[in-house]
Amino acid sequence: MIRLRHSSFSDRTTSAAPPAPQGWEETRAEEAKSQRRSAELIRQEEVDKEEEGETSAFLLPSAEAVQLLKSPIPTNRPMVDQHGGYNVDEALLSVGFGKFQIFVCLYAGLGWISEAMEVMILSFIGPSVKSQWDLSANQETLLSVVVFSGMLLGAYMWGVISDKLGRRNGFVVTAFVTSLAGLLSAFAWNYVVLLIARCLVGVGLGGGPVLFAWFLEFVPATNRGMWMIIFYSFWTVGTIFEVGLAWIIMPRLGWRWLVGLSALPSFGLLVFYPLTPESPRYLCLKGRKDDALKIMENIAKLNKKELPPGVLLTDREIELQRQVSKPEASATDSPSSAPRWKDSDLGVIETLRMLLSPRLIRSTILLWFIFFGNAFSYYGLVLLTTELNRKSHCNSNGTQSNDKSDAGVDYKNVFITTLAECPGLLISALLVDRIGRKISMAALFFICIVFVLPLVVHRSPLVTTILLFGARICITGTFSVASLMAPELYPTSVRSTGYGIANCVGRIGGMVCPFAAVKLMESCHQREALLLFVGVIVVGLFSVLLIPYDTKGRELTESISSTKHDKHRQAV
Fold it and tell me: Do 200 and 177 touch, CB atoms closer than 8 A?
């Protein structure tokens, strides 16, 4: 039982102190009343959980409730804010974006480079392996499909693991799997072994969203849009580097050397892993507030800034104090009406139910359509870059010719088209914090349609390269903005899982697109393939327009309970 120590409380409030501002006595009295009601709410939650036979590991212990009652009340200054402390978002705003975030950005960016290289390599090893092992078109297509199948599995699996066991534990395992499977691919002695190895590479690559979410949780809300787009530029660096590497390696050393060298960035993640911190948002969500505070203090020290005055509070504690500090709250309010805060220890089924709950289902479903459209279009354009430049094996009447002398990859055109990702990122970086996420994506989707449609009829190599360049600019921009907006829409308790599942759906688009970009093109059905691309992009465009609200400038929330109250809260 919690007993109020009236004597000690009175001693504190009557001890000598500098003159208080006018009206501060009333504020102190109201504050003490709020503290007592907060403790009662906490204790009532514990009693309710014990009666239900459920674990209360994620609830504050009774000792913490007592500490809340016994905490000293300031007598000579107002509180920092209405809650008497600050949350992680306010702490990040105070310490700003500095050396610490740059280190985190470089580390996560290395993982992003690794994933981009492993995806871009699909444009090169397929034709080369097909020629060396005399594979059919279906077997060549399957080399891409198994990678995206692995990414589909990994995106969900690593998202759940990182939400349950921590962001660090999630991305270190993905780096280990990707690097080893990449090396195994280089030494594959037959087609089946290569398929298995590439599938395992895909499983490891599925953890990319974990690194993205991890970096996002260290970035202040006011800088988030610009820096997340800058972070996405590491993907572009990876694709350009892979094309340049293929241009040098493939004609001289072959595909095995290219595959082996492309696995090296994943080993870099393992080397620098001991230096990486856990996400303070995740630690707060799991009740490890002291650990979160230590990390925030290290960030402030490295950035040469100071944390806000007061104490670090979780969204749960802020919500409890919000409940008890409402002026209209009456003494008859039931403590059981306080939020239950079950988000912090969710199982797989509970997580899925939360993502499909009334508050999140609309955003979740629409994000699935957006990610499917983005992945289908982006990876399709990557594969089309090589296929459209190898298309002269089709006769004017749409039938295949026997001349395969042009079956090699035109590295020059592929390199030029890949450079389009640079202006794509620049445009999205300039727009995302000015006109918002929704308008940026919608505009870029529409312009992408304008570039893709002429490819239905134009066959000139120069025109094809120009149109692919423009389309690649737009789809890179939409992909980067979508990757920024998706984790912003979800609370910390399901952020990695929600973003991971959205990427899972995107991987399905990646699995399907080889049949359009390779299979249809190999059978000389260019018009049908490109009209399919246009249709998918149109679906993505309308899905963007139906997203319920823009996340520009919004603070990240810890739980679905705080999502309800933070829907209209803007970062200051």
Answer: yes
Residue 336 lies in a domain: no
For the segment 101-156, what is each residue's pLDDT rounded down to a tens digit?
A: 888 889 888 888 988 888 888 878 887 888 888 888 778 878 888 888 888 788 77
DSSP H helical segments within 356-460, as ranges? 361-388, 411-418, 421-432, 437-452
Residue 290, C-beta contacts closer than 8 angstroms, at least 6 positions apart: none
Structure confidence at residue 325 (pLDDT): 59
pLDDT of residue 3: 42
Domain at 386, CATH number? 1.20.1250.20
Q: Who wins on pLDDT, 460 or 570?
A: 460
- If you write DSSP's letter for every residue of 68-122 in order, what string do you get? HHHSPPPSSS--SSTTSEE-HHHHHHHH-S-HHHHHHHHHHHHHHHHHHHHHHTH
- Is residue 157 domain-shared with residue 62, that is, in the same domain? no
Same domain, yes or no: 410 and 438: yes
Q: Which two tokens stand for residue 426?
A: 């620049």
Mean pLDDT of all residues in 478-506:
79
Q: 249, 126 in Cβ contact below 8 A? A: no
* Same-domain pairing of 117 and 190: yes
Q: Is residue 240 part of a domain?
A: yes
* Residue 496 structural domain: 92-280+351-566
Rounded distance between C-alpha atoms, residue 326 and residue 317, angstroms: 15
Q: Check whether residue 553 and residue 480 sit in a common domain.
A: yes
Task: Tell me which residue has tokens 């999205």.
Answer: 428
Question: Cα–Cα distance between 245 and 343 in angstroms, integer?
Answer: 45
Look at 39-48, 160-169, 187-196, 537-546 and tell me which has the smallest mean pLDDT: 39-48
Tell me the two tokens of residue 275.
């230096």
What pLDDT, on a 0 to 100 scale, did the predictor assign at position 200?
92
Q: Is residue 323 part of a domain?
A: no
Q: Is residue 14 predicted with pLDDT exceeding 70?
A: no
Q: What is the DSSP string of 142-193?
A: HHHHHHHHHHHHHHHHHHHHHHHH-HHHHHHHHHHHHHHHHHHHHT--SHHH
